[in-house]
Amino acid sequence: MNKHQRLKEMITGNRKWLLVRLGFAIPVGVLLFFFLQTETRSILYGSLMIASLLIYGVMIGRENRFMSSFTDHIRAKQVIHIQYVFDYMMVVFICLFFPLLMKLETISWVPFFIFSFTALALVIVERLLDEKVKRIDPQQPRRRDVKRESF
Q1: Is the pLDDT of residue 90 over 70?
Q2: Other beta carbons less than 10 A from residue 9's beta carbon
Q3: How far is CA 104 from each of CA 47, 84, 107, 119, rounded to the nearest angstrom?
Q4: 45 Cβ partners below 8 Å, 6+ apart?
Q5: Average model confidence (pLDDT) across the chain
Q6: Contact 137, 7 (CB under 8 A)
Q7: 99 pLDDT above the threshold of 70
């Protein structure tokens, strides 16, 4: 399968995964808001967020397998897997650690600095991994190509 055919199939599948991600993001955003706003039910909202993150981990694993199914190169599949692990870790960071830092009321600039540094690192690592996949399998579309063509 050439690059254009792969990209076309990935875009079709990516629309499905976009709906899954939105279906996850909206309830977690509401839970995150409630977690930060309440003192009495933090355990309940925190537990629901953790459960949601576990479910999201299963969904992102399926998306990872779908996206890596277009290449036969084992090393490319491993790099794609690493990309999805980084995405998942960023979501976990945003949903758990960042709110906990805010809830503990540490020095106000510390959560912002940590979040900014992590987000910047994720963007840089994602681009590097995208280029690595391209070098391993030139026919495999990059994630940013799929994202750009999906919208």
Answers
A1: yes
A2: 15
A3: 17, 29, 9, 21
A4: 31, 32, 34, 35, 38
A5: 84
A6: no
A7: yes
